[in-house]
Structures are given as C-alpha cells and as structure tokens.
Write a structure and sequence with these properties.
Shape: globular
Distance between the termini: 16 Å
Organism: Faecalicatena orotica
Protein name: Sortase B
Active site: 70, 164
Largest sheet: 8 strands, mixed, barrel
InterPro entries: Sortase, Sortase_dom-sf, SrtB
Oligomer: single chain
Keywords: Hydrolase
Mean pLDDT: 90
Number of domains: 1
CATH architecture: Beta Barrel
C-alpha cells in the first residue's frame, strides 16, 4: 500500500487469483462519485478507468464494500467477471482478497447474478446489524445463477463487485462475497 502515500484516493488492492483481477481500488467523494470511471489511479483520463469503491463505503470496516469496474473486452479491470457465470470457473476462483492499510481480508464468493437495482439492492453500503447482512446475503444467494455452498455463519462484512452486463438495459453482473477472516497474512499469489 506504498502507493497510497502518493495517491491518497487508493483505498485498497483487490486480487482474485487466476483471473487477471489484481488492481488498486480508488474512492472519490460524493461530489464526483464516478470520478474514476474513466480515470486511472493517477487521475489521468483512461478509457479503462479504475476499480472504484462506492463513495459512501467505509474502508476497511464498512459492512458492504461495493467495488465497480468496467467490463472491458480486453479482459482488464472487471472484464473477466462474466466468466464467473460458469459454476466451474467460480469453483476455481471463489477466493477474493482485499488489502488495505489494516491488512488483507479474505472473502468467499457466495453469489453470482445478473441483476439491476430494481431486482437487488447492490448499492446498499450499510445494514441494520447482522440480521441486515444475513438478509442481503440470503437475497443474493436466492438470485444467484447457480447454488453455492453454505459457509455457515455469515460475517458482518460483505464485498460486492459490480460491472456492466448487456442482457437488458441497466443489467449488471453482481458478485457478492462474504469476509472469512478479519485479516490474514498468507501469500495470495
């Protein structure tokens, strides 16, 4: 996280081993919520944009860290998220790591869906306690493209990854993952 000193909008680093997703995650303020949609981590114009957190997510302890990124044909940014619609691909890549100044958190993907905000509240950053998180995860699993394993007790923290999809207007590929450990130190490569 040495880059954060030079680029203070960097809030963390997202890695999904074996997928090509291995990028800094930025966050702008409420006044320009999609600043990084078409800018790189240096703030320079870039058609790929950057992975960015929804403006009202609190890092690292927010209940739902919502990360957006472009679905690039080149496979960069969130260009490989659509591959998670295959259960076999999900099974091989269901571990997600998010590194912040507080450490590295491991998440497990519990749901892969095609949705829009009228179907699923993926833009909801905070919940009413544990029961609110459980309901979000329950709803995500019910909308999933396939059934995933039950991991038992649900953490109070989830990670939601969102990118454009083209099945209908405003469709999104949405992936919901639950934090497994508060912080880990294993090698994630």
């Amino acid at each position: 996280m040495a880059m954060q000193a030079q680029y203070p909008d960097i809030q963390g680093w997202l890695t999904i081993p074996g997928t090509g997703i291995d990028y800094p995650v930025l966050q702008s303020g409420e006044e320009d919520q999609v600043y990084y949609l078409k800018r790189n981590y240096k703030g320079e114009w870039d058609e790929n944009g950057s992975l960015f957190l929804q403006w009202n997510c609190a890092v690292p302890e927010g209940q739902n860290l919502i990360i957006y990124g472009h679905n690039m044909n080149s496979g960069s940014m969130f260009g490989t998220l659509d591959q998670f619609t295959s259960r076999d691909y999900w099974r091989e890549h269901k571990r997600v790591f998010f590194q912040t100044l507080s450490g590295i958190s491991e998440y497990e993907i519990l749901s892969v869906m095609k949705a829009d905000v009228s179907m699923f509240p993926f833009q909801k950053a905070a919940f009413d306690g544990e029961s609110g998180v459980r309901e979000y995860v329950r709803q995500a699993k019910s909308l999933g493209l396939f059934e995933t394993e039950d991991i038992g007790d649900v953490s109070e923290h989830v990670l939601t990854l969102v990118t454009c999809s083209y099945e209908w207007d405003n469709a999104r590929t949405v992936i919901v993952a639950v934090r497994k450990d508060k912080s880990i130190s294993e090698n994630i490569s």
